[in-house]
């Protein structure tokens, strides 16, 4: 069984990425990698096989490390750079996409929505607890019939005196069944609005999605709202329309640009170790030309993806990134990461299908990462619109 606990020197030296990072960025990356090795990796196979994860325990650990909402300002957040946040996503997804999803949904979706668009009272009430991992948040946008077309959502909020009453449902909501607070997006007579909803609110129901074949070390939920009554101050006051949720999605997509490369790197590191130790026809599997060709091609794509992620991080920290630039990063890095995971599985052959090795677990997870926060097709159309000036969205 391969157990990856330190960077592969051959791979690290070939890519040379470390030399492009600042000392504090390397220190952060090492800290998160050590946390993953010590606290998460020993349990991943068990969690994945069981289809569950101790989300609250992990959230508290991430909070202690300052990783929840780390790129946000104030309210107990670490105020890190975008690049540092990306590197943390890379190291967590090198462990498992489900763990990175927990961090991303908490910080880049739920906390970002409250930080950017919430009232001061909402920020004070939720952000310090969420940054510490003492409260878990979720982000209710996707619906059973509306994923890539969020503007068609059927969840509706209507005014009733000074209150709001919400009816509808959401689907595929990471952390939904264990969340303490949900940011829910709903149609109103005043465009789409966001609401900060304590999950103990009467009329709020969350059930766990079971029998998943991907992101099994993650808790996914379906949310239902039946005459859920909220006070008038539950609404996010600073935004209306799709601009609110889509801007949060862009933050999450940025983390995935880095995260997908973490999964790919973990697959390649494990496969290099395996190929060097595996004997086939009296010599190392790594000594065969076809094996080396596969390894070389994967290392090239990994290097390009990591450089792309780092470039977007530096842009975001300086002049800012556009939505189409983030889409380019997510499209490329998810596409290449899943190719790397699948190719690694061919080198490991039958051993690669077991949970003794990470490659098929990563490949299964990346099937979901390819489609959430915008499918590959959506990102192709975003890039296409940037290139042509013509929108093909209906």
Description:
- GO terms for molecular function: fatty-acyl-CoA binding; flavin adenine dinucleotide binding; glutaryl-CoA dehydrogenase activity.
- Its cofactor is FAD.
- By secondary structure, the chain is α+β, with helices and mostly antiparallel strands.
- The chain has 3 domains: 9-131, Butyryl-Coa Dehydrogenase, subunit A, domain 1, CATH 1.10.540; 137-234, Beta Barrel (Butyryl-CoA Dehydrogenase, subunit A, domain 2); 243-388, Butyryl-CoA Dehydrogenase, subunit A, domain 3 (Up-down Bundle).
- Helices cover 52% and strands 14% of the residues.
- It contains 11 helices and 9 strands.
- It has helices spanning 9-15, 23-50, 55-64, 82-95, 97-117, 120-131, 243-277, 289-317, 323-348, 359-369, 376-388, and strands at 137-140, 156-160, 163-174, 181-188, 191-198, 204-208, 220-230, 279-280, 283-284.
- The strands form 3 sheets. Strands 2-3-7-6 form a 4-stranded antiparallel sheet, covered by helices on one side.
- Strand 8 (279-280) and strand 9 (283-284) form a beta hairpin.
- Helix 4 crosses helix 7.
Fold topology:
Layout: H1 9-15, H2 23-50, H3 55-64, H4 82-95, H5 97-117, H6 120-131, E1 137-140, E2 156-160, E3 163-174, E4 181-188, E5 191-198, E6 204-208, E7 220-230, H7 243-277, E8 279-280, E9 283-284, H8 289-317, H9 323-348, H10 359-369, H11 376-388
Parallel strand pairs: 1-4
Antiparallel strand pairs: 2-3, 3-7, 4-5, 6-7, 8-9
Instruction: Give the low-confidence spans.
Output: none
CATH level 4 superfamily of the largest domain: Butyryl-CoA Dehydrogenase, subunit A, domain 3
Placed side by side, the strands forming the largest sheet appear as 2-3-7-6
User: By helix and strand content, what is the structural category?
Assistant: alpha+beta
Shape: globular
Helix content: 40-55%
> Roughly how many Å apart are the termini?
50 Å
Largest sheet data = 4 strands, antiparallel
CATH hierarchy class name of the largest domain:
Mainly Alpha
How many beta-strand segments? Answer: 9
How many domains? 3
The overall average pLDDT, rounded, is: 94
CATH architecture classification of the largest domain = Up-down Bundle
What is the chain-wise order of helices and strands? HHHHHHEEEEEEEHEEHHHH
GO molecular function: fatty-acyl-CoA binding; flavin adenine dinucleotide binding; glutaryl-CoA dehydrogenase activity
Domain Acyl-CoA dehydrogenase/oxidase C-terminal: 241-387
Organism: Rudaeicoccus suwonensis
Domain Acyl-CoA oxidase/dehydrogenase middle: 138-228
């Amino acid at each position: 069984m391969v157990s990856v606990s330190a960077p592969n020197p051959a791979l690290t030296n070939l890519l040379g990425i470390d030399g492009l990072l600042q000392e504090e960025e390397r220190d952060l990356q090492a800290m998160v990698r050590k946390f993953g090795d010590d606290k998460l990796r020993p349990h991943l196979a068990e969690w994945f096989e069981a289809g569950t994860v101790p989300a609250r325990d992990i959230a508290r650990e991430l909070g202690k490390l300052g990783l929840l909402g780390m790129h946000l300002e104030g309210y107990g957040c670490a105020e890190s750079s975008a690049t540092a946040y990306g590197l943390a996503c890379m190291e967590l997804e090198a462990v498992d996409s489900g763990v990175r999803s927990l961090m991303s949904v908490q910080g880049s979706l739920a906390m970002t929505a409250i930080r950017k668009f919430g009232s001061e009272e909402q920020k004070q009430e939720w952000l310090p607890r969420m940054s510490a991992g003492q409260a878990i948040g979720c982000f209710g946008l996707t619906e059973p019939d509306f994923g890539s077309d969020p503007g068609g959502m059927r969840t509706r909020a209507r005014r009733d005196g000074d209150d709001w009453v919400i009816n509808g449902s959401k689907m595929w909501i990471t952390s939904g069944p264990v969340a303490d607070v949900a940011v829910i997006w709903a149609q109103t007579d005043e465009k789409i609005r966001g609401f900060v909803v304590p999950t103990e609110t009467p009329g709020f129901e969350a059930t766990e999605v079971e029998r998943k074949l991907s992101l099994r070390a993650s808790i996914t939920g379906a949310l239902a709202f039946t005459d859920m009554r909220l006070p008038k101050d539950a609404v996010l006051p600073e935004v209306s329309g799709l601009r609110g949720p889509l801007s949060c999605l862009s933050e999450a997509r940025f983390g995935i640009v880095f995260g997908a490369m973490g999964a790919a790197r973990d697959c390649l590191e494990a496969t290099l170790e395996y190929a060097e130790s595996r004997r086939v026809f009296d010599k190392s599997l790594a000594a065969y030309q076809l094996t080396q060709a596969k390894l070389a091609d994967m290392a090239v794509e990994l290097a390009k993806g990591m450089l792309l992620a780092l470039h977007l991080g530096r842009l975001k920290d300086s002049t800012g990134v556009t939505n189409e630039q983030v889409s380019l990063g997510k499209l490329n890095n998810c596409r290449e990461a899943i190719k790397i995971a699948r190719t690694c599985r061919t080198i490991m052959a039958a051993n690669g299908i077991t949970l003794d090795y990470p490659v098929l677990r990563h490949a299964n997870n990346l099937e979901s990462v390819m489609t959430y926060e915008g499918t590959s097709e959506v990102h192709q159309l975003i890039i296409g619109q940037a290139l042509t000036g013509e929108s093909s969205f209906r």
